[in-house]
Amino acid sequence: ETVSADEIKARHPHLEHEVGRQPMIEIRRMNKWYGEFHVLRDINLTVHQGERIVICGPSGSGKSTMIRCINRLEEHQRGTIIVDGVELTHDVKNIEKVRREVGMVFQHFNLFPHLTVLENCCLAPIWVRKEPRHEAEARAMHYLERVRIPEQAKKYPGQLSGGQQQRVAIARSLCMQPRIMLFDEPTSALDPEMIKEVLDTMVQLAEEGMTMLCVTHEMGFAKTVADRVIFMDQGQIVEENNPHDFFNNPRNERTQLFLSQIL
Ligand code: ADP
Ligand code: MG
After folding, report:
1. Which pTM was predicted?
2. At what angle do helices 192-207 and 162-174 cross, to 10 degrees?
């Protein structure tokens, strides 16, 4: 099931000029194995610019693997993945192109502990994109302000709370100016009182029109932000719907079971 251009226009009037372009992400009949284990089965997914997709499903259903295939942290074996017009193949140039467009935030923040917050944010812009340090630092401060922790710039990750560290990880990703952001359970390692500050940052990013794929079990976030919710089970996309129908009228019994357990 794909979403028509008219539906997207209705949801995102501010993106009208973008609609009609090629999809940002197009996955067709994608399959992946870990050795003998068939982890992803015939995945089909089209994501247009500015769309917010929430992916949920039981542990082990393949959510992380699917997300990681989109920036080639994992390699698929069959089918096609096209990101902003670039197909992911063995061509290293294509992989580099796609990685430049796609930011990723993980459950564990993966910040460099021996570098300050500011240095964490500037590392890739300086060393990968060869930006002058003052430009990289100015942009890093801009994004640290947007995630509301500019005052932490000179601190080390270990001096910050989990929620603050995760916001640094988001800012660090944004410093590479991605066109797509992937989130893999960004709040599931956080204490409850820190979840909201990270979700607020993600909501803000969504409101600014970022194309987002979020693996999360924060169903409040899914209800308010997602254009579509995708439910995965045993390596397949089992159900895909707008949040209202997904939560109020799930069609598949595995979705129903899952929702009854988490809501
Ligand atoms: P989810 O994110 O939905 O919990 P994952 O994508 O992490 O699921 O994992 C899907 C399945 O693939 C699980 O059964 C997991 O044990 C298996 N798996 C994940 N990573 C690897 C790996 N590197 N090698 C072998 N099996 C893996
Ligand atoms: Mg996972």
Report:
1. 0.91
2. 20
From ligand 1's centre to the CA of 186, what distance in Å? Answer: 17
Q: How many Cβ atoms are within 10 Å of 68's Cβ, its own excluded?
A: 18
Check: complex ipTM more than 0.85: yes
Q: Measured in angstroms, how far is the CA atom of residue 205 from the centroid of ligand 1?
A: 28
Residue 255 Cα distances to 4, 56, 124, angstroms: 24, 10, 40
- Residue in 216, 235, 230, 232 with CA at minimum distance from that of residue 105: 216
Edge-to-edge strands of the sheet including 228-233? 102-105, 180-184, 211-215, 52-56, 228-233, 236-241
* Span 79-109, pLDDT tens digits: 999 999 999 999 999 999 999 999 999 999 8
Within 6 Å (CB) of ligand 1, which residues are found? Answer: 34, 37, 39, 57, 59-65
For β-strands 78-83 and 25-34, DSSP reports them as antiparallel
